[in-house]
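Reviewer 2 asked us to include a model.

Predict the structure of this chain.
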Amino acid sequence: MKMEFIDKLPAMDLMRSEKMTFVQLIIPVESAYRAISYLGELGFLQLKDLNDDKSPFQRTFVNQVKRCGEMSRKLRFFRDQINKAALLPTVHPTLQPDIDLEELEIQLAEHESELIEMNANGEKLRQTYNELLEFKMVLQKAGSFLVSAQSHAQDRELEENVYLNNDYINRASLLEQEMQSGQSNQSGLRFVSGIICKSKILRFERMLFRATRGNMFFNQALAEQYVIDPVLTEKVEKTVFVVFFSGEQARTKILKICDAFGANCYPVPEDITKQRQITQEVSSRLSELEATLDAGIRHRNSALNSVLSHLKSWTVRVRKEKAVYDALNMLNFDVTKKCLVGEGWCPLFAKPQIQEALQRATFDSNSQVGIIFHVTDAVESPPTYFRTNKFTHAFQEIVDAYGVARYQEANPTVYTVITYPFLFAVMFGDWGHGICLLLGALILIARERRLGSQKLGSFMELAFGGRYVLFLMALFSIYCGLIYNEFFSVPFHIFGETAYKCRDTTCSDARTIGLIMYRDAYPFGVDPSWRGSRSELPFLNSLKMKMSILFGVAQMNLGILLSYFNARFFGSSLDIRYEFIPQMIFFNSLFGYLALLIVIKWCTGSQADLYHVMIYMFLSPTDDLGDNQLLWAQRPLQILLLLLAVVAVPWMLFPKPLILRKNHLERFQGRTYGRLGTSEIDLDAEPSSAWQRHEEFNFSEVLVHQMIHSIEFVLGAVSNTASYLRLWALSLAHSELSTVFYEKVLLLAWGFDNILIRLAGLAVFAFATAFILLMMETLSAFLHALRLHWVEFMNKFYRADGYKFRPFSFNSLPDEDN
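Predicted model (structure tokens):
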């Protein structure tokens, strides 16, 4: 009757993955494109690649994929050009009617060639403008060098006119000899002028000095304007230089060095009149080029704006086209080359929708032959698909990060939705900190529509994806904080007056004298009088440690119970008899008994030492318990539980492999009949069972696997129970750390009669609360709760050897912006 009652219970959402069916499609060539497009819009069919033995270049629609790839490259080029031009997307993009792929390809090619031509012309104009701008700066700076050098030489000539010309020439500098009137042409002194990047000027001057052996005069001046590098499109600071030298060989060396350093050399006439004339001409040409460049930029921006208005729709269209042809490449041509054959998985509930979409594709393509859609057999296990919403999606991702559930296996997400934030809150319990978390979660939930359409950073994207996880974590933190009676580590009399008072009426506090109970217990949570008393830590440690063990035993029992429902669902009576039953007996004989003793001790107020009880249950089970006795007939009960735990170990280890070996031998000798496969998949059967996979039976391998599983469970029962003590440790650490910041920072600063010290103390307290307690402690509790679920809870029943259902869907196409 009990089993019938369980079978009649309605199915729980998310408890089992959706029932899947393996289907085959036979699609006429003329309606193949529309059929795959409609299936992509629907998003409920996972296609199997029937051409996985072929390279991408050997597939049927490789040319169409190449064309779509080329169009994607052009769209990326447009996007890069728009980003460089810093153009903002239009609020309401222009709606364009659906155009043929060939027409779109022609439009993209025309826009690309136009932009490439405009870019080339713009680069040439920019290069010419930069050269003229550099020439103008060289004329201005080099001309001033020459004028100052000439005036300096003439002054020296007037002052030293009393000396002989020969003596003067022997002692004068090269520059002064050059600037003497009537001597410049005979001396052979020349100069090279140009412009170079400021970062290279020191190395450039050093190289010139070494190449000419010091027989040169180098002058430099910083350019007044920045020059835009046409390659990097960045402003570059440059320096104008003039090198005076003598001889043709030195000139050749200097020009080679200029070329090696990327310096641009420009001729500067010595005549001041010619310099002014050339400067005026260069300035007029610069003004003309500026106008031309502005007009070119405006024309280019208008062309980019026209592209921008259609860019999003074009990108979506090309991505869909490429996805359709990639999907078509997974299909096979039949022998007549008139039909395409495809296979794949779909949820059972989606079969009518898929059939309706295929019928619509046949009608829209005017095909005379309909699409054949039928269910067939499959060798491999079906994929796992859970229908989630925005609330349950984050919890399902937490579970899937450990491993994807086997097909139709019990899904831990059903329980993780509650247990995960609750265990987090046990470690994080403080209703002040919980309110801060709640505010953050509510902000993310209130702005989810706007934030969901934006590109977020890695941390913000993680927080936004888990906004509902944060929401429940905050609610449970407030609940546990009320139980612990902690608001930023400060207790409050929220639910009434305290039940304790000082033992001595003369005491001012309860730090040395102790507390006595004089009225009924505090209605809800921890009594605020425990705060600051000498027994605060022993009381809270005892409470939280025992509470952690109770939570751990309850959650692990739930995991073992779920293994029973898995075995019952898949019809595996061996797993129920030789795994579930001995596991329950072993675990509860030891740790279930410990949890029972904790509850009895709380209810009776006994002073029994549970450490002593559990240790001597193994060391001396027949000894008298004395003051540690909590139950009638406790000693024989402990002996019985100990014997049951010892018997449960071989019960888990040996019977299942031996029975499997016996069944295999009987089947091999023909004494029993194996199960026959049907034309359709039995959706209630275990997909990894022997009749589907036809694996060879290896007794030694089965025995070793069962041995490992049994030893892991026995040792894990101890280590996993101890692992739940992290709930106590982290809760205590969070409470004590919060107390330290409150008492040693905020209260200490508030004790000074100085507003600056108080503000500084408040700032330090706020910083520590935000970055240590609300960020680091949140992350720590999050990871520890994650470990408790992955290791301690889910390993009791969760095999996690499945694979996700990944249907062909336009909604799941990767974004090319990433």
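Residues 160-187, 674-694 have pLDDT under 50 and may be disordered. Residues 29 and 339 are 5 Å apart (CA to CA). We have added this to the supplementary material.
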